[in-house]
Design a protein that fits this description.
The chain has eight helices and nine strands. It is an alpha/beta fold. α2 links the parallel β2 and β3.
């Protein structure tokens, strides 16, 4: 029987790349995200390229009722999830705390922290019941090192770091693995979302150096997921060679 991976935020970037990697490795995949059209397109592509089964659930992880309804209504055979990748996350704005947009704060906290919790709360009991499972949370170097104007985004990713450690302890006696993957600068939709569609500001984020790409993180996630049953990768921090810390880069 094929293994199953559930990937949140699968409509672009790291989530989309991760879906391809797990399908390549013969996993059936459950893809979630807000944009149904993109989920449908990705599902068709994956099914055609890898000939694996794909289930899609279009919902926003910020909406607790939607998370519960969509996941709990999956057929029983799809609840035998081997790997959950909590990837859905974003950054909004780059302002100092005294001028920060409170709506942006709510969006980041509700997505990066509460969304991860909602999905994990549904899926982790399935894993306990099944007797196996691996939860991989996508954090950020921003959760390890605070940088100017990063305030709430950094705090939300620090929460992912702490929650990953806490989940590992809570699920230890059930044999459920927990891993946190903390990427540095990766050229995905991240900067476009942070700057709300401002292409020029987004482009400058990656000028003068070669950033990570989504596939780099997807392969890192797969590395953690593919270790033997007795091996748990607690955390991995992955940065471009030209990145020395959260906000130090060697730009040519």
């Amino acid at each position: 029987m094929a293994k199953i991976a559930l990937i949140t935020g699968a409509t672009s970037g790291i989530g989309e790349a991760t879906a391809h990697v797990f399908a390549r490795e013969r996993y059936n995949v459950i893809l979630t995200g807000r944009r149904l059209d993109r989920l449908e397109k990705l599902a068709t592509s994956i099914n055609k390229e890898y000939n694996v089964e794909v289930a899609i659930c279009a919902f926003d992880v910020r909406d607790r009722a939607e998370v519960i309804s969509n996941l709990e209504n999956l057929p029983a055979e799809w609840k035998k999830v081997n790997v959950l990748v909590n990837n859905a996350g974003l950054s909004q704005g780059l302002d100092p705390i005294q001028t920060g947009n409170m709506d942006d704060w709510d969006t980041m906290i509700d997505t990066n922290v509460k969304g991860l919790l909602y999905v994990s709360r549904i899926v982790s009991p399935w894993m306990i019941h099944n007797g196996y499972g691996h939860i991989i949370n996508i954090g950020s170097i921003a959760g390890k090192e605070v940088y100017p104007n990063g305030n709430v985004y950094c705090a939300s990713k620090a929460a992912v770091d702490s929650l990953s450690k806490a989940m590992r302890l809570d699920l230890l006696s059930h044999g459920i693995k927990v891993t946190a993957v903390h990427p540095g600068a990766a050229e995905t939709e991240f900067a476009m979302v942070r700057f709300k569609g401002d292409k020029e500001r987004a482009k400058k984020t990656y000028e003068g150096f070669e950033p990570l790409v989504a596939e780099d993180i997807a392969e890192t996630i797969w590395f953690a997921a593919s270790r033997p049953p007795h091996v748990n990768i607690n955390e991995l921090v992955v940065m471009a060679t030209a990145q020395g810390s959260a906000n130090h880069f060697y730009r040519k």
